[in-house]
Every structure is written in C-alpha cells, then in structure tokens.
Amino acid sequence: MSVNYGAKRIAVGAHYGLRDWLAQRVTAGLMALFTLIVLGRVLFTSGAIGYDQWAAIFAPQWMKFLTFVMIVSLLVHVWVGVRDVWMDYVKSFSLRLALQIFTIVWLVGCAGWAIQVLWRL
Predict the structure, then answer these.
(1) Cα of 114 vs its chain's centroid, Å
(2) Which of 35, 57, 67, 99 has the most CB within a 10 Å radius?
(3) How would you class 73 by CB atoms within 10 Å of its CB: exposed for 0-12, middle for 13-18, buried for 19 or more?
(4) pLDDT by position in tens, the chain (length 121)
(5) How many CB atoms lie within 10 A of CB 77?
(6) What does each C-alpha distance from 71 to 35, 64, 105, 109, 117 come to in angstroms?
(7) Cα 51 to chain center, whole Å?
C-alpha cells in the first residue's frame, strides 16, 4: 500500500517563493543600475569632489527620484532577505514575530532618515 505524504504537506511560507525571488532580483538590478549611474556621474565630475560637487550630483530632481527608487528597492530587498532568515532559523513564533516587527520598524526609520537626508540637499 502506497501512502502519498506530499499531498498533506504544509510548507510554511511556500507562497512567497517566486514573488520574493523575483523581487530580490529586480531590486538588485535597480540598485546595480543606480550604482553605475552614480559612479558615472562621479567619474565625469571635474576636479576634486567636495561637499558642493557631491550635493550637485544629487541636486537634479531626476536624480532625487532615482535615489528614492533606490531607497525603496533597498528596503524591499532587505525585508525579503531578513524575513527569510527569520522564517528559516527562528523556530519560536513569538520571537520570530518580534524580530519581524523590529525589522519593519527599523527599516521604516531608516527610510525616513534617508528621505530626510535626500530632500535636505
């Protein structure tokens, strides 16, 4: 007699698979593209780079928009990765929930700080 164990198997977090895999790849691509753009702007800036030149790199509105997209991409990328680590290695539900809440609060705080720095330039 054959028993099919796979039909009753419950995989925690299995519904996240493809969506999160794709989110990490897309956000990594956006961050790499942003890095190349900033590197290009830095390399083609004449003279020594001080505060004024650095601020001028990020002053145009389109660059602020790209930086905002990069910040959002970074937050999504970090959230997916850290959440997966918590789900894989922290077995206690209450501790895992506390760590996930702490991670969300920390990431929202970092986003607020980054946006404040970006628009204060």
Answers:
(1) 13
(2) 67
(3) buried
(4) 555 555 555 555 556 578 899 999 999 999 999 999 999 999 998 888 898 888 889 889 999 899 999 999 999 999 999 999 999 999 999 999 999 999 999 999 999 998 898 877 5
(5) 18
(6) 12, 10, 15, 12, 12
(7) 26
| Residue 5: both structure tokens together | 């164990």
Count CB-CB contacts under 10 A for residue 83: 18
Number of residues that this document lists for the chain: 121
Q: Going from the N-terminus, what domains does the chain have, and what CATH number goes with each?
A: 22-120 (1.20.1300.10)
∠ CA 18-91-77, nearest 5°, is: 35
Closest CA to 73 of 116, 33, 104, 42: 33
